[in-house]
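Reopening this one. Same input as before:
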Amino acid sequence: KLSNNGKTASRLLGPNTAATVINYDEEYKVSNFEQRLMSEIEFRLERTPVEESDDEVQHDDIPTGKCIAPVLDKKLKNYKAMEGVPVTFTCKIVGVPPPKVYWFKDGKQILKKNIHYQKIREGDGTCSLYIESTTGDDDGNYTVMAANPQGRISCSGHLIVQSGPPPSRLTPIQSQRVRARIQEVEGEQTQERFFRPHFLQAPGDMMSHEGRLCRLDCKVSGLPNPELMWLVNGRPIYPDLNHKMLVRENGIHSLVIDPLTQNDAGTYTCIASNKAGQSSFSLELKVVEKEMKHPPQFVEKLQNMGIPEGAPVRLECRVAGMPPPVIFWKKDNETISKTKSRV
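Same output, byte for byte:
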């Protein structure tokens, strides 16, 4: 089975892919063949049953409103590390309802009872698999799969643990079987009659002022025409008095927020979906607090005073205003110079 050969197959190129020995973990690029092997594992996992997820997410009560299949906002990376160092695989997953998350190594599910791996899930959708001290057995392909009632999605990352000489090549029979299966998968994909969404235009991180109109514009291609869904901090945005979703004749989709408030600050994600798949982008929106303007006002006024000649005197008042007022002092209607040493 491919899952049994994942560790060996991922190093098919042997010495040609060996890297300089290091004492920490670093990201690296896999070969096209290694990438196809990981895609093959994902292809199988998305179509086979899995054991129950370890996390606390439940799908017994599906929320009302529009549901969204899982989307990978941040994918796993590939690493190589010296034996004994820690390694963390991290991704970010969004969806409605929140997807259940499953982790696999070489196609075999990593269960909760396996204390060698620590699974971490944060409120913003970030999911991590942490290995405190890598061993030679940790070398291989790691896959995360997210599922909710709307569908499944997965991505993989590869880990090379450097602890000795490069392993041997695949036997010709093993290599032939793997390549044949890859060609079969590619043949299925080329028969697809639809085109998955692709964002031709998307905004980056933005800063807008409180009380003003804010518009997020994007343009997306796909066949059939994709449907768009906006989320803020992982929560769906529905049209209301302050939020509107518009589509112009030139194909530009817009999320309009008017007026903008401090509560609108956060991470915005736009998900485009059709029969062929999904695509998404995210941005950070910062809201600049509205400057409240108030004319100058004397909160405490000057008081009449009687002072013996030769004694010091301090005349005080308290002034409020926004922006902070500029203060001028006068005596008998003549401005007192700031350079006057006695005053």
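So the earlier flakiness isn't reproducible anymore. For the record, The first helix runs from residue 2 to 9.
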